[in-house]
Amino acid sequence: MKVFGKCQNCKNEISVSVNYGTRLEIAMYEGETKSNYCKNCNKKNEFHINDLRAKESKFSLIISGLIFLIGTPLTIYLLFDYLIIPHNPYIALIIAGFIAVPMTIYGIIRKQDMIRVRAFNRAYK
To answer: Cβ of 51: how many Cβ atoms within 10 Å?
Structure first.
């Protein structure tokens, strides 16, 4: 989850570092305002926590995509070279089961990030 605010001078998105998942937790532990410098116009901006927005992180998208792209061929390779006896009639079921593991991990990571973003953007202090 990436939390950002808009610069009051140039309207550029400024990333704000937060250690908590909701606005209420930020207000309780860090205060009601966050400040950061705009890299575009070099002005200091103070943001009230209700002015901050969240969006999905590219980092979690990249990590989950790598798990999917590396995990699927790896499981197929391991299945054919080490685990499956050739001419097994249940090969299709086993492959489908093992390919589902990276797909499930990918889905869980994406869903959790979307839930965190939705919860942050919905709840105001």
So the answer is: 14
User: Would residue 125 count as lying in a domain?
Assistant: no
d(CA 104, CA 11): 38
The answer as to whether 9 is a domain residue is yes
Provide the residue range defining the domain that includes 31.
2-55
Answer yes or no: is 14 within a domain. Answer: yes
pLDDT in tens, the chain (125 residues): 788 888 888 888 888 877 788 888 888 888 888 888 888 888 888 888 888 888 887 887 788 778 778 877 777 776 666 655 555 666 666 666 777 777 788 888 888 888 988 888 887 76
- Residue whose C-alpha is closest to residue 30's, from 13, 15, 49: 49
Q: What is the rounded distance in angstroms from the CA atom of residue 27 to the CA atom of residue 18?
A: 11
Q: Which helix (H) or strand (E) holds 45?
A: strand 44-48
DSSP three-state, residue 28: helix
Q: What's the number of domains the chain is made of?
A: 2
Check whether residue 43 and residue 73 sit in a common domain: no
